[in-house]
Amino acid sequence: MKKLLTYLKYYKKESILGPLFKLLEAVFELFVPIVMAKIIDIGITHGDRPYIYKMIAVLIGLGLAGLLFSVTAQYFAAKASVGFVKKLRHAVFSHIQSFSFTDLDEAGTSTLITRMTSDMNQVQTGLNLALRLLLRSPLVVFGAMVMAFTINVRAALVFAVAIPVLSVIVFFIMYVCIPLYKKVQIRLDTVLSTTRENLTGVRVLRAFCKEREEIKKFDGENEALTSVQKYTGRISALMNPLTYVVINLAVIWLIYTGAVVVNNGSLTQGEVVALYNYMTQILVELIKFANLIITITKSIACGNRIQAVLDRKPTQTGGAKAADSENGCVRQNGGRQPKVAFEHACLTYKGAREESLSDITFSCEPGETVGIIGGTGSGKSSLVNMIPRFYEASSGRVCVDGIDVNCYNLPDLREKIGMVMQKAILFKGTIRDNLKWRKEDATDEELLCAMQTAQASEILAGKDGGLDYFIEQNGRNLSGGQKQRLTIARALVGRPEILILDDSASALDFATDARLRQALRALPYQATVFIVSQRVSSIRHADKIVVLDDGKMAAIGTHDELLKTCGIYKEIFQSQGGVDA
Ligand SMILES: Nc1ncnc2c1ncn2[C@@H]1O[C@H](COP(=O)(O)OP(=O)(O)OP(=O)(O)O)[C@@H](O)[C@H]1O
């Protein structure tokens, strides 16, 4: 959390002025009981109306000055806390952008969202309160005590007893409540992530009629949160009755002692009222301070969670490894190189016990089409994800143009590759915005050409605005097939040297899929194409087909060769009717 506070350096002035104005407000507040005492002792006792009016004017002046200081303090505190969180949010967001797929798998998207949203809000609230109250409350407590002693030492002795007792009660309750508040925060996190998961998968849940189970699961978590909140609430609710009992006993004592001292003539009635007011000020400030500490504790817990994100070192840097002939960062023997080559490449996901891919060795020439086929979970996506270095080989290597992918700067490597992921994801914005991701200055002609190859031109025909048609968040105003074709078009813009289609035609009908494959074969430039598919029809015309079985390469060859030599391929082919689509 301490490290986070370095972001306050951009708001030094505000972080000093905020508390300072709050202190000024407190000083003015401390004079109010004295003025009241004067009104009673001089104005009322002697029936001196002008004096009373004058003192009322002073009271109003004190009030207005206090208000002005308070508003100014609020302004600076808000500016500092909002600005601080803005910088912090920017830093965390930028840091998350440097996370590799492995880091994202490990950190978990859902909790990252909670940290970027509710945790940030909590930190902002905590900082705002701390800037305003952290110095003010102790000053008021201390100042009120000093003022009480300057009025009358004997009568003020009640403060010397009451304040420690009040402090013990307040801080004991706080001591018990703080761990409970942390528990509340953890349970709240669970409720939030269940809500998020539920809302993102709401269509699937409805399709499977899982609403009841989900409500039951949610109720369980909600109940757990409520029960810990209730328990915490019950304990913290003791704060007011207990402190008021102490304060009222102190007031009785004060009035009794005051009465005795007033009788002696060494204390005036106004001074007794002033002492009473100081007692109330102290109580209010102690309660505010206790609440402040609770809020700060929650904020520190949230700040630490944010810090943990910043502390996570990205496992992959965007940079390249140093060029050295040993590690394959220098092209070995000049001449013509395969476009992509897997050399005994293995992949073990972080935390996984077994390899997901073992000893993958094959290569392909520029312009070739490579089909990847295999059962579910056989490692097809894992294999193509190693080309753009989404996941790095745990042993062996993957080369592009004869150079190990680990030796490339990530942007240089990824610029060569047009990737279409299994899940078609589009972003809020126009079709044009979405298509320009690989090439910002692409002309409309280039975009339309890519859409034509991706068999996506007909989407424009049915939509108002053509390329300016607005896509809603997650592309929810498009069908699954339309989204897939647009993601293929997006990958084609900028003429990538390598095009990877990871099961990205699954929502297309056979005829459209066939037209897409034909268009890809007729690309007016040389592109090496990887097609991952469960359908033999999608890959049967590929120059090479890699058959995967449980993370291992079962065979490689053309369709006809594999039908003769690879039992697994033949089985897949026959299970799909054994005919071309
Ligand atoms: N991010 C990940 N973290 C850990 N394990 C993973 C991850 N992604 C995939 N795996 C595991 O790696 C293996 C291969 O998965 P992969 O997604 O590559 O298979 P696939 O052949 O593409 O499957 P499908 O056809 O179902 O998409 C599976 O056992 C899977 O559980």
Automatic annotation (TrEMBL):
GO terms for molecular function: ABC-type oligopeptide transporter activity; ATP binding; ATP hydrolysis activity. Its main location: membrane. Keywords: ATP-binding, Cell membrane, Membrane, Nucleotide-binding, Transmembrane, Transmembrane helix, Transport. The keyword ATP-binding applies. The keyword Cell membrane applies. It comes from the Bacteria. The chain crosses the membrane at residues 20-40, 52-77, 133-151, 157-178, 242-262. One of its GO terms (cellular component) is plasma membrane. It is a multi-pass membrane protein. Residues 16-298 form the ABC transmembrane type-1 domain. PROSITE patterns: ABC_TM1F, ABC_TRANSPORTER_1, ABC_TRANSPORTER_2. It holds the Pfam family ABC_tran. It is found in: Cell membrane. Residues 340-575 form the ABC transporter domain. Gene3D superfamilies: ABC transporter type 1, transmembrane domain, P-loop containing nucleotide triphosphate hydrolases. This is ABC transporter ATP-binding protein. It comes from Congzhengia minquanensis.
